Amino acid sequence: xxxxxxxxIYYSATGSVYAMAQAAEKAAEHAGSEVRLRKVxxxxxxxxxASNEGWATHARQTQDVPEATLDDLDWADLLIxxxxxxxxxxxxxxxxxxxxxxxxxxxxxxxxxxxxxxxxAATAHGGQETTITxxxxxxxxxxxxxxxxxxxDPIQFQAxxxxxxxxxxxxxxxxxxxxxxxxxxxxxxxxxxxxxxxxVGLASS
Length: 205
Prior knowledge:
Blueprint: E1 5-10, H1 16-30, E2 34-39, H2 46-50, H3 53-61, H4 70-75, E3 78-86, E4 89-90, H5 92-98, H6 102-106, E5 114-121, H7 128-142, E6 145-146, H8 154-159, E7 166-168, H9 178-204
Parallel strand pairs: 1-2, 1-3, 3-5, 5-6, 5-7
Antiparallel strand pairs: 3-4
Family: Belongs to the WrbA family.
Domain Flavodoxin-like: 6-191
Pfam families: FMN_red (PF03358)
């Protein structure tokens, strides 16, 4: 059994965030963490999804990915959230899931967990940083310890986002490349390292 548990909870419409979530999953497992990869529930009507070929295809391809529950948050030592940008904020699907966490928050179940976030946007200045900092606002309320990637690895001087891994999809036409996947992998490894140190430190205090 691993000494650390990581929940990666994401929303993805056409697959960019899902690809990043998969990279995070592999990186966390390679770093020795047990991992749950979970999507949040889709809120859009079926006719809206069907009207977009990429959206419909991705929905079919990921239909077997388990949906996130509050237990996935309670279970984990490290929380990794991923969502596309919507007007500079996280997509409503992930926000709706976050809004159900009141029982855990009220019971202090999320305090002292490590947390980090990543995103994808359609355009180069489409709100990547504001989406991540908006997710950080949730972590503040939960009492988490936020782990940003910073510029703690050479990959960050290429990726360029110290808040969290981000991707520009060019309106859904460009999937995450190796640079973006390497950036989210580094972010995940760093978060696992800090979460492990935090867990050990709290246990010995």
